[in-house]
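Blinded run. Sample ID left blank on purpose so nobody reads anything into the name before looking at the predicted structure. Input follows.
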Amino acid sequence: MNTRTFSPLDRLLMGIERAMEAIAGSPEANRRSPGADMAEGELDDPARRHVAGLMRVNHTGEVCAQALYFGQAALARDSETRDHLLHAAAEETDHLAWCAERLRELDSRPSLLNPLWYAGSYAIGAAAAAIGDPVSLGFVVETERQVEAHLAEHIEQLPAQDERSRAILSQMQLDESRHAQAAQQRGGIDLPFPIPRLMQLSSMVMKTVAYRW
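Blinded prediction complete.
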């Protein structure tokens, strides 16, 4: 069987296509939304706006995850590491699609700054990969741990009657934990101080802005 070798132009065009799909497209999930079978809870206007803000933050987080993984895969040294990153990105596409669908159900929209979030995350992923695969995988471990923690916060903040959003975020939390464990098992190292703290601060900025815009 012949394996196609992609030229730098091929890779550039595929990267642009992936970015446009994550930012402005309608990604298709491979798995059905965990909230699909849940009844829609009664939400008044303030509660609906709050839930929409939380889901917009999570949608933006998945845009960032797509960019991060693709940036890391682009400069991964080892082909197995690259395949691992692309597989994780495919699962994150499910999350992106679920969050986008939930935003539509809430009559809301994604963050207007998603192109900015994507570009920044791609650059960070590529920079981590340029240092080496152990650092790149360590970045995945730390990122997923922080995402898992913030998902737990969002689950606590959801109105009790919003079982649809809760089911989505709970499954996302399980997936993120699994991604962190897999990256650690593949050789991801603990990132030195102050990188984890800087990641937390940048995440706080993103969450604050994306909640409203």
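Unblinding after everyone has recorded impressions. Helices lie at 8-24, 45-74, 79-105, 114-131, 133-157, 163-185, 195-212.
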